[in-house]
Structures are given as structure tokens and as C-alpha cells.
């Protein structure tokens, strides 16, 4: 797993260990704290240890080509998990949520909150995207833009900073503190007098950073409403922010289901059975089109918290208080 910075990865990890243990496997789970070199040496150690299968959520999807060649030579089954391994033919499957759909849900959340499809606007808008070394940031961005680009083009969404291309709005390692300081800079340079109406934050870490920056200059109090802020992952601080009204929405990706899917896929592969995939065209990693199992993300606003997050058993009610 890439890091423990987002609670989702520890939750993925725990569910995966449980699912694999149940299927009779011994597991060894490693977190790399967003250090590419750490992740590569973890991988190297596991190859030496003689593992039969690897499930990898890469930090930088382009860095594993040599190690995966070695894994292939050893006959190890490899699944790329949540994030796509790039520039390698030497792995087997990809299990992820539909990242394009995640971006579409984020974009649609802004459209419906601002009622853009009823002709309202113009509104001031800024974008905070994920890390460009993570393929998901590119795919989610494409999904977001499929919904929002027409409103940007027609002038209904106005990006006062002018920062709109992915490399201008990206955030290394999806780091909330970096998002916070970028928001600080944008607010002081472009929003001295103007009100910011909406922020596309690509995940909850970024949303938390953005919201604290906004609070710092008085948004959310004294007649200055918070902008519409999106997110992803349904992390507890963000779910609480949604219930408070500081964040408008998040995208829930049930990590239990993804972990379970990856465990079942690797078990089938190791047993020589058919491996379930539902997408064989979308994910080209530069070296091959990767057979993929795609799960569906779900948009969550305040009204959905009970049904989607509590009734499903993902969080107990008291963890959200
Ligand atoms: C995952 C997101 C996560 C982000 C930062 C992405 O690859 O799909 O769920 O928020 O990485 O860890």
C-alpha cells in the first residue's frame, strides 16, 4: 500500500488480509509512506521471501518495470490494486473503482449544487487535483472535465487563478497540506474581493486542506458561505465536515469490496481458475491493455450519510459524532 496517510489504505489493507486469511493464505502487508524507494525495496524483499502472489497499489506507477520482470520470471501472480501499474507487461490484472465515474460524480455534484444545468452563474471556481504520478489522477480529471469543461468554456464557471490544466492543479502525493498552501496563495492573489463559489477537490485529504484555508480567511462564518467543496473516499473527518456543512460531497468507494475482489482474483489466478474481470478495453498502461475488474463509486452528500455509510456497516454512527 502507498501510505497510511489516508485511512482508506489501512482499511483496504485490513480487509484484504482478512479476506486472504479466510481463503487460507498467509499475508505480509507493507505500507510505504509515499516513499517510492521504500516501496521498491519492500517489493524486492517480498520477491526474495518467495511470495506466490503480490497485490500492489503503486505510489508511482512507472517505477516497477524491472522488479515486475523479476516477479514474472519467478512465476508470481501480480495484481495492480486501485492504482494502475504503468509501462509493464509483467503483471496480470487490475482491480479498481471506476475512476472516470468518480470524476463524473464529482463534476455532477458541483453542477447540481450550483444548479448550473438551470442556467445559473457565473460562479468562481478552482480545481485541486491529485498526484500526477498516480494514473488515477489523470483518469478522474478526465471524468471531471467531461462534465465541467462546457461550463468553463461558456463562462459559467470562472477560474480566476487561470489554473486549469492537470499539471497546474495537481498536488504531489495528494498532500492536504500542499493543497492548503496553494489555496492560501490563490485566495490572497485572486479572491481579495471576489467570493469563491465552488472547489473541485479530488479527494478528502485535499478537501480538508482547502476547507482549513478557506476557514482561515473567514469562509463559513459571518455571512460568507463556504464554497461547494467535493471530495473522495468518505474519510471520517470529511464525512463530519459534510454533516457540518463545510464540505458538500464525497465519493464513497467501499474498500471492503475492492479488497475482497482483489483477494478473490488472486486466489482464482493461483488456482488456475477463470479470473473475473468486467473491462478489457479501458486501461491501457502504455505496454498493454490490462484486464480489469471495475467497481462502482457512489456519491455521498449529507442526506446520504446514514443510508450509504452507516446502514452499510462501513462506519458505526458513533464514529461519525
Ligand atoms: C485513490 C484515492 C485516494 C488517492 C490518494 C488514489 O489513487 O484512488 O482513493 O484518495 O489515491 O491516496
From TrEMBL:
Pfam family, one: Peripla_BP_4
InterPro entries in the record: Bact_Solute-Bind_Prot2, ChvE-like, Peripla_BP_I, SBP_2_dom
CDD domains per the UniProt record, alphabetical: PBP1_ChvE (cd19994)
Subcellular location: Periplasm
Domain of life: Bacteria
Positions of the Periplasmic binding protein domain: 3-274
Annotated keywords: Signal
Hydrolase in keyword set: no
Family: Belongs to the bacterial solute-binding protein 2 family.
NCBIfam families, sorted: ChvE
Protein name: Sugar ABC transporter sugar-binding protein
Organism placement in taxonomy: Bacteria, Pseudomonadati, Pseudomonadota, Gammaproteobacteria, Pseudomonadales
